[in-house]
Amino acid sequence: MTNYLPPSAAAWTGRQTDPTLGPEYWYQKMELLDLRQAISADPPDLALLGYACEEGVRRNQGRLGAAAGASEARRSMGSLANHLGPLRIADAGDITCLAGDLESTQESFGRAIVRLLAAGIFPIGIGGGHDIAWAHYLGIRSALAGRPGTRLGVINFDAHFDLRSFADGPTSGTPFHQILVDGAGQHGYLAIGIQRAANPPSLFQTAERLGARFLPLEACGANAQDVQAAITLVQHFAAAYDHLYLSIDIDGFSAAMAPGVSAPSPVGLEASFFFPVLAAVLGTGKVISCDLAEYNPRFDRDGITGRLVARAVEGIARAAFNSGVIKTGA
Prior knowledge:
Blueprint (H helix, E strand, L loop, with lengths): L3 E2 L20 H4 L1 E2 L13 E7 L2 H5 L9 H10 L10 E8 L5 H17 L3 E6 L4 H12 L8 E6 L17 H9 L3 E8 L6 H10 L2 E4 L7 H15 L4 E7 L21 H13 L3 E7 L10 H20 L7
Parallel strand pairs: 2-4, 3-4, 3-5, 5-10, 6-7, 6-9, 7-8, 9-10
Antiparallel strand pairs: 1-4
Cofactor: Mn(2+)
GO molecular function, one term: formimidoylglutamase activity
Keywords: Histidine metabolism, Hydrolase, Manganese, Metal-binding
């Protein structure tokens, strides 16, 4: 993979602690997984894979800077306190975009996802534009290729449907349209946090035509009733599928807690809604892989968006382990 950058120990730093206490922070726990080498017979349980690409955002007329999302997210994750117990986590490096070649970047990312899944490693992709979703799906599709009839459900926390036409090529606004067309009725899509002001009527029509389901932002309040209704919706949706692919677009949150995104919004998801619903998605035990997209550190303030990304990754890791999605952390 000519567009692969292996992980670096220099990316993982943090507060100095007493060595006798063991790994107090993520940077002390992080393993390095170089995908140019054979994966050992005793691999880590979870691996972070960066998608250092913003070509899809450029094509979708968004503001640039998301290509640096994975590298900056590592800074925030390194300082997370370690409460992962026996769970082994690794950095698998980055897939980069060369000369604007989005399509080959997506193919390379997909091949890397296949390698991780084949080794029994739970992947967490970190973008980069939301075109990471098609790239990620390519890997999941290949990993499931030997299981005919397998139904895949896609859950996306997002302000946008990302169901735009891909007739003129993929962008950060097309991935879930691509996935549903490719799935030919075998795949389903649930978008949580959809904002009407951010999606023209034609996209609602596309969602209806493709059988996509969605929960509007107005139904994503922080109150217990909305949270429980969303959890019930997730559980009913998951029951129809063999596996789930989870994607999180950071621009689904309000700019108050996520200013560093490609398409900021004054309104959006709140943490008190997102984290319990996130735990419920992982709690189904069906999530095969997940990613986070559209973190744009160029526009972040005081690192707040990077910290949100880090907390989301930590939430995924803990929930995946606690729900049994990851079974090898002993």
